[in-house]
Amino acid sequence: MQYSKKTTDLAAEIVTQCTACGRCMKDCLFLQNNCETPKAFFEKVVQGQEIESVVPYSCLLCGHCQFVCPQKLQLDAAFLSMRQDLMAQQKQLPLKALKGVLFHQKFSTSALFTTVKKSGDKK
Amino acid sequence: MTYGFMAGCSLSSSKPQRVGDAINYLQQFYPDLAVIQACCGRPTRMIGQEEKFQERFGNLTQMIKGAGVDELIVACQGCLRTMRDEDRFMTSSLWVKMAELGLPTQCLNKAKDSEVVFSIQDSCPTSQMTEIHEAVVYLLKQLGYGVAKSRLSGQNTLCCGMGGMCGVSNPNLSHDVAQQRVQSFKTDYIVTYCASCAFAMGVGGGKAWHLLDLIFGDVVQLGDTPTPSALGNPVKAWANRYQTKRVIQKS
Ligand code: SF4
Ligand code: SF4
Q1: What is the whole-number distance in angstroms between the Cα of residue B163 and the centre of ligand 1?
Q2: Closest approach of B125 to chain A, Cα-based (Å)
Q3: Does residue B73 register a pLDDT over 60?
Q4: CA B198 to CA B212: how far, in whole Å?
Q5: Helical axes B77-86 vs B50-66, angle rounded to 10°
Q6: DSSP label at B128?
Q7: Model-level pTM?
Q8: Which of residues 30-69 of B touch A (CB under 8 A)?
Q9: Angstrom distances, CA of residue A68 to CA of A103, B157, B240, B246
Q10: Overall average pLDDT of the B165-180 stretch
């Protein structure tokens, strides 16, 4: 997998700064299930190793890690950037299940399910 | 100054009646309130389609400006976070607004005889907006409920399990996260101010109420169980979304 410069930069930043202190992992099931340490995980990204698509797509993008990280590292931004690369580089969706999201977003933004009641419009 | 209100997809899909209640409440302070039902496009951004997201958010911005809204009052933390990240119009949180404006008099202390103590599931997109956490605690106390402290709350909150589209891309992990989250609370009664969080807490085996149900609905007593979230039932959820649109048009 060829990651974008943005992803590689974000990953390299984590690799250099992460001290593997484990604070982010303490309460994050996603990290516990998918890596030894963020440092080790993002080393694989920097080296362009194959990582299953479901991994970046499983991060909850909740930002808890950044709040507890002494270095304020943005793991979520790196996982989101990996998603953007997967979307851009693959002809098919990176995960079949994402079809549901496409469908949901199409309908959520359609005229059928949206409406505007302007200021002062009476019933 | 013209105010607008937006409930967001998950609340519109789960509680049409509460969207109506929030509109009625806000109209007492802002008779000319505009109301928007639309999607902020956050899921599009989260799955990695940034360009498509920008297009959708651009449409929403036009809708809001076209409605003459100067400040949009937002009930959904996902929407609010997306809007503040984009910073194209003024926003405020419904919960902060309600704390400032004050609850309807008949709501004050209504739960004083209830022994229920709630743990709060703070929404992760607004984990760094501490004024929202404070407003929610304040509103619960105004209602007369006890509030339990939790290590993983406020800025240190954890996701309910539905964040980042994990519920779609990795349902097993999402389920485990929800379960872990439910078990992390010291009380069996959980309150959320996000309809997705409320749904997730149910998936994780917990009993969770949406804050709007506590404000506008019946007092929760020990032994009560919440109505299951419609978000687990797509047909019901889309029907609700359509129903909410009708509620807005009639408001
Ligand atoms: S953003 Fe992702 S990595 Fe960070 S705590 Fe949340 S789930 Fe874990
Ligand atoms: S908290 Fe920060 S420094 Fe510590 S392991 Fe996590 S990413 Fe590395």
Answers
A1: 9
A2: 6
A3: yes
A4: 11
A5: 90
A6: T
A7: 0.95
A8: 32-39, 41, 43-44, 46-50, 56, 59, 63, 66-69
A9: 35, 10, 38, 44
A10: 97
Boundaries of domain holding A55: 5-113
Hey, what amino acid is at B154?
G
- N residues, chain A: 123
Task: Dig out the tokens for B54 from the structure.
Answer: 């920008």
What single letter denotes the amino acid at residue B14? S
Predicted local confidence at residue A104, as pLDDT: 86
pLDDT bracket for residue A122 (50, 70, 90): low
Nearest-angstrom CA–CA distance, A67 and A45? 23
pLDDT above 90: residue A36: yes
Longest dimension (CA), chain B: 52
Handedness of CA B25, B219, B198, A107 (dihedral sign): negative
Ligand closest to the CA atom of residue A80: 1
Least CB–CB distance from B47: residue in A58, A76, A101: A101
CA atoms within 13 A on the CB side of B146: 13
A81, part of any domain: yes
Question: How far apart (Å, rounded) are the C-alpha atoms in residues B245 and B250?
Answer: 9
Spell out the domains of chain B, with CATH numbers in brackets. Answer: 3-100+234-250 (3.40.50), 106-231 (3.40.50)
Burial A10-29 (b: 16+ CB within 10 A, else e): bbebbbeebeeeeebbebbb
Which residues lie closer than 8 Å to B136 by C-beta, 6 or more apart? Answer: B95, B120, B122, B191, B193, B211
Overall domain count for chain A: 1
Instruction: Calculate ∠ Cα B7-B13-B19, nearest 5°.
Output: 40
| Dihedral sign (CA B185, B229, A80, B91) | negative
